[in-house]
Amino acid sequence: MTAQLPSEVVVSAGTAGPTKSLLRFLTCGSVDDGKSTLIGRLLYDSKLIHDDQLDALRRDSLKHGTTGEDMDLALLVDGLEAEREQGITIDVAYRFFSTPRRSFIVADTPGHEQYTRNMATGASNSEAAVILIDARKGVLTQTRRHSYICALLGIRHVVLAVNKIDLVDFSAERFHHIVGDYFGFAQTLGFASVTPIPISARYGENVTSRSGRMGWYDGPTLLEYLESLDAEHDLAERPFRFPVQWVNRPNLDFRGYSGTVASGAVAVGDRVIVAASGRESVVSRIVTADGDLREARAGSAVTLALADEIDIARGDVLAPAAARPEVVDQFAAHVLWMAEDAMLPGRSYLMRIGTKYVPARVTTLKHKIDVNTLEHIAAKTLGLNEIGLCNVATATPVAFDPYAENRETGGFILIDRYNNSTAGAGMIAFGLRRATNVHRQSLTIDRDTRLRRNGHKPAILWFTGLSGSGKSTIANLVEKELYGLGAHTYLLDGDNVRHGLNRDLGFTDADRVENIRRVGEVARLFVDAGLIVLCSFISPFRAERRMVRELVGQGEFIEVFDDTPLEECIRRDPKGLYSRAKEGKIKHFTGIDSPYEVPEHAELVLSTRHSTAEDAARRVIADLRARQIIS
Q: CA torsion sign, 262 to 265 to 269 to 275?
């Protein structure tokens, strides 16, 4: 951030080039600071509103407006009926406008704390931020929150727009006081420039035209600053990165790799490398719909043809051989959580990084960040709109640059694998382990050798159900029968593993996820050893049961659901746990104050409510024979 006295105006600006460039910026700040009004003013003064829109605006201003007889320019942006009725912005609204010097896409983002994820969405696509402050209120908690998120998401240039300056009699003293407060907070955030501008969005003072009421201010208007800001050169100067979106092979005579140049530039004849595999080749053609190019720069959508036929797939990243990105399967990242359900370390999510999709999980939450004070807070999970520094592990290696160096290759999203919603957004800080440093050791005795020796197929029999449903009893009976048939087995029981392997875990949702993750990895090793491993666990969450299923091969995970109703389990209560849970003596007890997610596609559904455990065990053995696990 440019270090200047608060009374001085800081302008980090270049000159507009001969061709009209595009600047993406967002407006943010606390509720009622005037973000939508500011954008409405920019649209209005740019003469981009048609007569019919003006007529509608006048009518809407009388119905929903907050400016008396005047037109409420905020209504040009607040399109949702709920927003108009409340006078606030809920969704992210994007608007395009243009001047003779430049084109703009502006994102109007919500001010309420509960919509922080929407604000982060707007920031992730922006090159600059206009942070509004109500001149009467000064720097607020949400001002600090939005500033921190802007810095975290890689925005380098900030306009500090002190709005509603007309309501403090155009006071220079008030303006300088607010700017001083903000600089005191923001100097640790690492912005390249912070430019304070006193404005009145409602009346257009210092927005598109210079105000005649603030002779003490001699800096640029907001529009002058935005027209001259040079925010594009950073991306062009970064090393070349090209995430492959599509392998383009229209016929036998052509193979190309389509995508968008994320950063840097590439020319015909350049030597490039596939980041993950290290294989090299030379760019022979740069193909577009309008003909071949000699060079392609950041933002160009092209198809690259290479001189050699090497293995490249969607999600691979092409880069210069001399400036290869890191390739890791574990890294540290700041994560902004965007889902209603808390982030649980150990749970498997689907990560999208560039054009690559890969299963991933948060292994550790190092700390949570109080974005108001920047304090680091110990925590085990992240809730909605919370930010934390996490260690993340991916199922396969990924290529990346630190987010601070390249937003295009250092950012990712986490997707809930159950409902496909965006669960979180992440910014990679640094790698923890290079994937190329760790290799699998080949073994002389492999699983096929063990299978022939054992005389049966390996499998995981996963018994799930509420406490008291009878799953452990059934599992014991099944193992006894399998042992009598000469099968190689082992039984992992929920209570038993908590005496050793998982004795450090409690019963919170986060601990339950880690409990099943560890058991799943152990069960996978037993399957690799050729055993039939019986796992008896409540395992209340579908995501973790699916995670274990994906650890082994097709047909090697058999989910056995003991569908005994809760009221029957409470009636039995063999260990007295339900009565203690209802008295509040046991917290996070499944079925009482912690949920159980019923399997949707279990291979086998049992119930001991109207049949015996022996009958249920015989059904399991019959199912194993039908699947040819045993003969």
A: negative
Determine the Cα–Cα distance for residues 116 and 308; give it in Å rounded to an integer: 47
CA dist 108 → 34, 95, 332 (Å): 10, 8, 31
The SS3 assignment for 229 reads coil
Q: For position 370, what pLDDT does the model report?
A: 87
Structure tokens at 93: 């609204």
Instruction: For residue 365, report the phi and psi dihedrals to the nearest 5 degrees.
Output: -95, 105
Query: What does the pLDDT look like over 235-281, one tens digit per residue?
Result: 678 899 999 999 999 888 899 999 999 999 999 999 999 998 999 99
Sequence length of the chain is 631
Question: Distance between CA 312 and CA 420 in Å, rounded?
Answer: 27
Question: How many Å is the maximal CA-CA distance in the chain?
Answer: 96
Q: Which residue matches tokens 């989910």?
A: 559
Distance CA(73)–CA(70), nearest Å, equals 9
pTM for this model (two decimals): 0.76
CB 169 within 8 A of CB 150: no
Q: What is the DSSP string of 127-192?
A: SEEEEEEETTT-S-HHHHHHHHHHHHTT--EEEEEEE-GGGGTT-HHHHHHHHHHHHHHHTTS--S
Alpha carbon distance 122, 125 (integer Å): 6
Beta bridge partners of 560: 463, 604
**Measured distance between the N- and C-terminal CA atoms of the chain, rounded to whole angstroms:** 72
pLDDT tens digits, 190-219: 899 999 999 998 888 999 989 989 999 999
Q: What are all long-range contacts of 168-172, with beta carbons under 8 Å and residues at least 24 apart?
A: 168/135, 168/136, 170/198, 170/205, 170/211, 170/213, 170/214, 171/135, 172/214, 172/216, 172/217
- The mean predicted confidence, pLDDT, of the chain is 86
**Dihedral sign (CA 356, 357, 358, 363):** positive
* Strand extents, DSSP E, 348-386: 348-353, 356-370, 375-377
Question: Which structural domains are found in the chain, ordered by start?
Answer: 21-231 (3.40.50.300), 240-320 (2.40.30.10), 326-435 (2.40.30.10), 447-626 (3.40.50.300)
| Residue 392 CB contacts under 8 Å (≥ 6 apart), including other chains | 330, 331, 332, 333, 335, 351, 360, 361, 362, 363, 426
Range with lowest mean pLDDT among 80-94, 169-183, 429-443: 80-94
Which has the closest alpha carbon to 387: 333, 338, 343, 335?
335
Point out the least confidently predicted range of 29-33, 313-317, 588-592, 594-598: 29-33
Per-residue model confidence (pLDDT) at position 66: 56
Give tens-digit pLDDT for 536-569: 999 999 999 999 999 999 999 999 999 999 999 9
The Cα 212–Cα 219 span in angstroms is: 13
Helix (H) or strand (E) holding 196: strand 193-198
Nearest CA-CA partner of 195 in 179, 213, 177, 172: 179
Which sequence positions are flagged as catalytic?
539
The mean pLDDT value for 575-586 works out to 89
**Residue where the block lists tokens 């995508």:** 259
CA separation (Å) from 149 to 2, 248, 316, 325, 510?
19, 38, 29, 25, 26
